[in-house]
Specification:
four-stranded antiparallel sheet, 0% helix
């Protein structure tokens, strides 16, 4: 690519080792005047398969930069980043890399707080996908020295299901989002830091938030270390619903820091749903029944992970495009994973469903590429 400047910031790899990298290209060596998203597909040997840029024609006052790539479980690629200087918006692009390098859709979201600090390397926006094809784009917006977090949830067709914008914990001037993850039910977990300060004191602590599939705040928790200076950097949720957060924490009066890892155990008998406005909702349940197939797309070799209740038996079935059953496996509570051999399925599109008793606990599309 014959541009004055080019920088790649994110990467994703599909199930057959094709590589997708995204970043920014600019016609100006100092990045100051113009730019565009650039996404490249490379085959496993590193040879370029295709390239796609957005906007297609770069304009002088626009500064685009892609910051995150990821796949959903149907093999669609999502690229997100920001446009600073024209619309001050978050751009998200969906590709189906199996069929075309042309975008399926391009969506724009303008947080109430965004500012220009993204160019200085502050928290970029990132993207997650759940098992139903919903997309979550999240990040931190800045106005002067203040910061707040935002989340936008897109449906598979690109329509917006809900947004959380300009959220600050307890009205603190700084609420910074560093990491997010999803559990098997599609609940969203966010972590970062929240800070409160005045002319004499400064306090910064871990902030961890759970948001349900409807966009309601379920709970928020603060971790405060011994010297009141703690910054969370990563969050994960286990299959049984425990939440783990790690980061850095100052542990002595000289400013020396250590890691601090926190485990939150979710208790259905005590946890209640509270919306952003604080209204009480019904008690939540952490009783999980689920099924997950990975990798997807695949070469036919796939793993199936599931959980059903102890009293249940179930079945996992795969159907071809004309509705013929091509695979079946009994599910029991004593087993939680099994392997499907690539010899059983030829290239094509299939559908699976999993039943526990009479209840369907999962269904989705499977893509096999050989």
């Amino acid at each position: 690519y014959n541009y004055a400047s080019l920088s790649m910031n994110s990467m994703a790899i599909d199930s057959i080792d094709n590589i997708y990298i995204s970043g920014k290209v600019s016609e100006a060596a100092d990045w100051a005047s113009s730019g565009a998203f650039l996404t490249l597909k490379l085959d496993p040997s590193g040879t370029k398969v295709w390239g796609s840029s957005y906007p297609l024609q770069m304009q002088a006052t626009i500064n685009y930069m892609a910051t995150s790539d990821m796949f959903d479980n149907l093999g669609n690629l999502y690229v997100t980043g920001f446009d600073v200087g024209q619309s001050d918006s978050i751009i998200t692009i969906k590709y189906n890399p199996l069929t075309s390098y042309n975008p399926v859709w391009v969506k724009s979201f303008s947080p109430k707080a965004m500012g220009y600090d993204h160019l200085a390397g502050k928290t970029p926006n990132k993207v997650l996908a759940d098992n139903l094809g919903n997309i979550y784009v999240y990040g931190t917006g800045y106005v002067g020295s203040n910061a707040s977090l935002y989340v936008v949830k897109y449906k598979d067709d690109g329509s917006v299901e809900w947004t959380i914008d300009h959220y600050t914990y307890n009205e603190n001037p700084l609420t910074i989002l560093n990491s997010a993850t999803l559990d098997l039910e599609g609940n969203l977990y966010l972590t970062g830091s929240t800070a409160n300060y005045d002319s004499t004191t400064y306090s910064v602590n871990y902030l961890t938030i759970k948001i349900n599939t409807a966009g309601d705040l379920v709970w928020s928790e603060i971790y405060k270390g011994p010297y009141d200076n703690d910054q969370a950097s990563c969050i994960q949720v286990s299959e049984n619903g425990n939440v783990y957060v790690t980061g850095g924490s100052v542990w002595n009066e000289n400013g020396g820091s250590e890691y601090a890892t926190v485990k939150y155990a979710q208790c259905p008998s005590k946890a209640t749903l509270r919306s952003m406005s604080g209204s009480s909702k019904n008690e939540i349940s952490t009783e999980l029944q689920y099924v997950k197939v990975y990798p997807n797309p695949s070469n036919g070799n796939m793993n199936v992970v599931y959980k059903i209740e102890n009293t249940e038996k179930g079945v996992f079935e795969i159907y071809d495009m004309v509705g013929r059953k091509v695979f079946s496996h009994e599910l029991t509570s004593s087993e939680n994973t099994f392997f499907i051999s690539g010899a059983l399925l030829s290239s094509g599109v299939y559908f699976y469903q999993a039943l526990a008793g009479k209840k369907r606990i999962g269904k989705d599309k499977i893509i096999v590429i050989k």
